[in-house]
Amino acid sequence: xxxxxxxxDLNRDDIKKGLSDGSILLVDVRExxxxxxxxxxxxxxxxxxTFDAESLPADKRIxxxxxAGVRSLRAxxxxxxxxxDLREHYKGGxxxxxxxxxxxx
Length: 105
Known about the structure:
The chain is α/β, with parallel strands linked by helices.
Protein backbone atom coordinates (compact mmCIF):
# COMPACT_ATOMS: atom_id res chain seq x y z
CA UNK A 1 0.00 0.00 0.00
CA UNK A 2 1.35 3.42 -0.94
CA UNK A 3 -0.41 5.36 1.81
CA UNK A 4 -3.58 7.36 1.47
CA UNK A 5 -4.97 8.24 -1.92
CA UNK A 6 -4.89 11.99 -2.61
CA UNK A 7 -8.10 13.74 -1.70
CA UNK A 8 -9.93 15.72 -4.39
CA ASP A 9 -11.40 19.00 -3.15
CA LEU A 10 -14.54 20.05 -5.01
CA ASN A 11 -15.99 23.55 -4.92
CA ARG A 12 -19.60 24.73 -4.94
CA ASP A 13 -19.76 24.90 -8.75
CA ASP A 14 -18.56 21.28 -8.99
CA ILE A 15 -21.27 20.21 -6.54
CA LYS A 16 -24.03 22.16 -8.32
CA LYS A 17 -23.05 20.70 -11.68
CA GLY A 18 -22.82 17.14 -10.33
CA LEU A 19 -26.19 17.39 -8.60
CA SER A 20 -27.92 18.96 -11.58
CA ASP A 21 -26.66 16.40 -14.08
CA GLY A 22 -27.02 13.48 -11.66
CA SER A 23 -23.35 12.50 -11.90
CA ILE A 24 -22.71 12.56 -8.13
CA LEU A 25 -24.29 11.26 -4.96
CA LEU A 26 -23.71 13.91 -2.29
CA VAL A 27 -23.34 12.13 1.05
CA ASP A 28 -23.80 14.47 4.03
CA VAL A 29 -21.89 13.07 7.01
CA ARG A 30 -23.17 15.59 9.56
CA GLU A 31 -25.29 14.31 12.43
CA UNK A 32 -29.05 13.68 11.86
CA UNK A 33 -30.15 16.80 13.74
CA UNK A 34 -27.81 18.96 11.63
CA UNK A 35 -29.11 17.37 8.43
CA UNK A 36 -32.73 17.85 9.56
CA UNK A 37 -32.08 21.53 10.32
CA UNK A 38 -31.01 22.11 6.71
CA UNK A 39 -29.09 20.40 3.95
CA UNK A 40 -28.10 20.73 0.31
CA UNK A 41 -31.03 19.62 -1.90
CA UNK A 42 -30.32 16.14 -3.22
CA UNK A 43 -27.89 15.20 -0.44
CA UNK A 44 -28.38 11.96 1.48
CA UNK A 45 -27.76 11.66 5.21
CA UNK A 46 -25.02 9.25 6.30
CA UNK A 47 -23.81 10.42 9.74
CA UNK A 48 -20.13 10.02 10.53
CA UNK A 49 -21.01 8.73 14.02
CA THR A 50 -22.60 5.64 12.46
CA PHE A 51 -20.52 5.58 9.29
CA ASP A 52 -20.65 2.35 7.31
CA ALA A 53 -18.71 2.41 4.05
CA GLU A 54 -20.28 -0.89 3.02
CA SER A 55 -23.74 0.66 2.88
CA LEU A 56 -22.71 3.26 0.30
CA PRO A 57 -23.68 2.39 -3.27
CA ALA A 58 -20.83 1.04 -5.36
CA ASP A 59 -22.26 2.23 -8.67
CA LYS A 60 -22.30 5.95 -7.92
CA ARG A 61 -19.71 8.73 -7.84
CA ILE A 62 -19.80 9.55 -4.14
CA UNK A 63 -18.87 12.98 -2.86
CA UNK A 64 -18.82 13.59 0.88
CA UNK A 65 -20.04 16.80 2.48
CA UNK A 66 -20.25 18.12 6.04
CA UNK A 67 -20.40 21.55 7.68
CA ALA A 68 -16.98 22.88 6.68
CA GLY A 69 -14.90 20.07 5.14
CA VAL A 70 -13.43 18.43 8.26
CA ARG A 71 -15.75 15.46 8.81
CA SER A 72 -15.96 14.83 5.08
CA LEU A 73 -12.19 14.22 5.13
CA ARG A 74 -12.67 11.73 7.99
CA ALA A 75 -15.38 10.00 5.95
CA UNK A 76 -12.90 9.61 3.08
CA UNK A 77 -10.37 8.09 5.52
CA UNK A 78 -13.00 5.69 6.90
CA UNK A 79 -14.14 4.68 3.41
CA UNK A 80 -10.59 4.07 2.22
CA UNK A 81 -9.81 2.08 5.37
CA UNK A 82 -12.80 -0.10 4.46
CA UNK A 83 -11.34 -0.65 1.00
CA UNK A 84 -13.52 1.82 -0.91
CA ASP A 85 -11.86 4.00 -3.54
CA LEU A 86 -13.54 7.23 -2.46
CA ARG A 87 -11.63 10.50 -2.41
CA GLU A 88 -13.89 13.43 -3.31
CA HIS A 89 -15.43 15.94 -0.91
CA TYR A 90 -17.04 19.36 -0.94
CA LYS A 91 -14.25 21.37 0.66
CA GLY A 92 -16.42 24.32 1.73
CA GLY A 93 -19.29 22.17 2.93
CA UNK A 94 -22.68 23.35 4.07
CA UNK A 95 -21.32 26.65 5.46
CA UNK A 96 -19.98 27.62 2.03
CA UNK A 97 -23.29 26.60 0.42
CA UNK A 98 -25.39 28.70 2.82
CA UNK A 99 -23.03 31.70 2.71
CA UNK A 100 -23.46 31.77 -1.08
CA UNK A 101 -27.24 31.91 -0.68
CA UNK A 102 -27.84 28.55 -2.33
CA UNK A 103 -31.18 26.76 -1.73
CA UNK A 104 -31.54 24.55 1.32
CA UNK A 105 -33.98 21.75 2.11
